[in-house]
Amino acid sequence: MRKKHVLLLLSCSIAMxxxxxxxxxxxxxxxxxxxxxxxxxxxxxxxxxxxLILKLPYNSYYIAGxxxxxxxxxxxxxxxxxxxxxxxxxxxQHVSLKIPNITxxxxxxxxxxxxxSPYFYLVNGINPAILRGLISNGxxxxxxxxxxxxxxAVPISKSSFALRSYNLSEKxxxxxxxxxxxxxxxxxxxxxxxxxxxxFCVEGMLHYNKSKKEIIYVYTYRNQYIVxxxxxxxxxxxxxxxxxxxxxxxxxxxxxxxSKMLTGLPNIINALSSVSQNNLFIKxxxxxxxxxxxxFVEGATIDIYDTNTGRYKSSFNLYNHEDxxxxxxxxxxxxxxxxxxxxxxxxxxxIAHKQNTTSNTHIQ
Amino acid sequence: xxxxxxxxxxxxxxxxxxxxxxxxxxxxxxVFQAQIGKSPLIMGYSKWLAFAVPGIExxxxxxxxVPRLQLAALYASFSxxxxxxxxxxxxxxxxxxxxxxxxxxxxxxxxxxxxxFNLAFxxxxxxxxxxxxxxxxxxxxxxx
Lengths: 364, 144
Hints:
The complex is a heterodimer. Chain A has helices spanning 3-25, 293-297; strands spanning 48-55, 61-66, 70-75, 81-86, 92-96, 112-116, 119-124, 129-134, 141-142, 152-157, 160-167, 172-179, 185-188, 204-209, 214-219, 224-229, 234-239, 250-254, 259-263, 270-276, 279-284, 299-306, 311-319, 326-332, 335-340, 343-349. By secondary structure, chain A is mainly beta. In chain A, the strands form seven sheets. A four-stranded antiparallel sheet of chain A has the order 1-26-25-24, with no helix packed on it. In chain A, strands 2-3-4-5 form a four-stranded antiparallel sheet, with no helix packed on it. In chain A, strands 6-7-8-9 form a four-stranded antiparallel sheet, with no helix packed on it. Chain B has helices spanning 6-27, 29-36, 46-64, 70-94, 111-134. Chain B starts with 5 loop residues before the first helix and ends in a 10-residue tail after the last helix. The interface between A and B is medium-sized, with 30 and 30 residues.
């Protein structure tokens, strides 16, 4: 090939590379990370006392629930796989759950495990079906009137559930209670407040706090959480410490697929949450004014709220493990259980901590 | 039987690729546009890119079949495949998250496979240019 053509190829390459670098220079990637206009009250070192590490056989586990001494792990790729870990010794036990005729359920690979010792539940909002069994023998079966579709379901008692379901007249997701008696399925449309599209804008995490008989909902895309009693009556709404009161999301309707898609930059405010006794723990994706960027980006910042008063208490930062980010976490008594990739870390925390400094500290 | 030259194979592959890719993007125009809207690099231009990318692919596909325009079209093919490869490499290396904006059967490939696929076609374009330049000059008969 003659020299002129080689030069032409090189010029084309350089021109294309300039386009990519030019796009990069004006893209949001080069902008400084957003900092909220609020300060975090960081706990001093000594909040976390020690850690135990266990390597799991897969990186597809989630936390299905806890009981007095144990944490239960479900698996995204196999709904019949349950791992039970002792929170003190990290001894592990594998239980095979059995769903009879599993393939006759719609989206049977989407069954999710929920624990309320001594029972385990398998919930599938698409079929829909709610199955129950004893953890000791693993056999699951249908046991109640479970004909309502749902996006999430959390057991309140042996025969009642809190659900997040789509309400056709409100055109949005709402919370509901489903019981195995004459009341059956009942929406309470006063709890979730639609802001724009009714689906993504009210997205959130549903919890049941057995010790206080409270249903707690934490919004994913706005700075709020709601506390209700076990009958889904609203007790109070409280704000998280960031300032995003309106879900900063953009959605797009995709006619050809009859679906709605989230578009634009990722904008999760509250990423993960867990309730234990009178504490609500929320992993926040918003950087605080007085926070160290490095520990924020290379770890997880968790804010603690007092569910008796609805007030923010303090925060702490957890470093990622082996460069894997935090996938799931839960707190039971003085144990903080976290999943990073295929590792489980159980840290003992000083739950009756004394709050003092406002300077940033991070915990290994 | 007519001799099928290697150049013809290369041209055929490119025409097939561009027509398939542009058709699948245009048939699901709204999906493609929404997916581009998630890319941190090009989200600001999603509306017109959703037109422009398949549009340019179709133009190049037709130009490849016109002998006078074939060389220019091969350079354009090289440029566009190089651009797509650079885009994927950039997203894989520098983006904090990976958006998806792919077409048809190509969306079954992972991002790394897609990068290799695009680099392969970038090399085919260079091969095409070389073969096009190697073609014997048309014979000119002089009527004396």
